[in-house]
Design brief:
4% strand; 62% helix; rod-shaped; two-stranded antiparallel sheet; mainly alpha
Length: 154
């Protein structure tokens, strides 16, 4: 495909240079027209030049479209390969996490892992009078804090 693309580009460049030469130099046009058997009539020569240009333009368009289709197909294939590799990587990561999870010490119950040594939480110690439960505020209050858990008395 690259060869066809380069060949059509070279042919278009040669055609453009010859067309410019024939347009700007009447002596070159007459000499070339008589050499290929078109005579000295400029209309027939320019018609032949026009037909050659149309053929070259059609060839360039066909080659460019074929190249574009092949490139798009290649991109789709590469994107498919990338997605396949991403899926393999994801599966591999899941397997690795599962292996790491199974090698962890502890008792597994459902989805929660507990260590072998269970540390019991210490009960809270009251700060108020003996036997009373300290007052805990659930929501912040607008009252100023006095430093104790008991509300201020007025």
């Amino acid at each position: 495909m690259l060869f066809l693309k380069r060949l059509t580009t070279i042919l278009v460049m040669v055609y453009l240079l010859l067309a410019l030469l024939f347009i700007f130099s009447t002596a070159a046009r007459d000499t070339f027209a008589s050499a290929i058997g078109l005579g000295t009539e400029p209309a027939a020569f320019y018609y032949t030049l026009f037909v050659a240009g149309v053929v070259l333009l059609a060839a360039v368009l066909i080659v460019e479209n074929m190249d574009s289709v092949l490139l798009r197909r290649s991109v789709v294939q590469h994107e498919g390969k990338i997605n396949e590799l991403k899926a393999r990587l994801y599966d591999h990561q899941l397997e690795q996490r599962e292996r790491d999870f199974q090698q962890r010490p502890g008792t597994v119950t459902g989805t929660t892992t507990y260590p072998d040594e269970v540390i019991a939480p210490t009960p809270p110690t009251p700060t108020g009078p003996a036997g009373s439960i300290p007052r805990r505020t659930v929501y912040p209050s607008d009252e100023p804090t006095t430093g104790t858990d008991n509300p201020p008395t007025h």
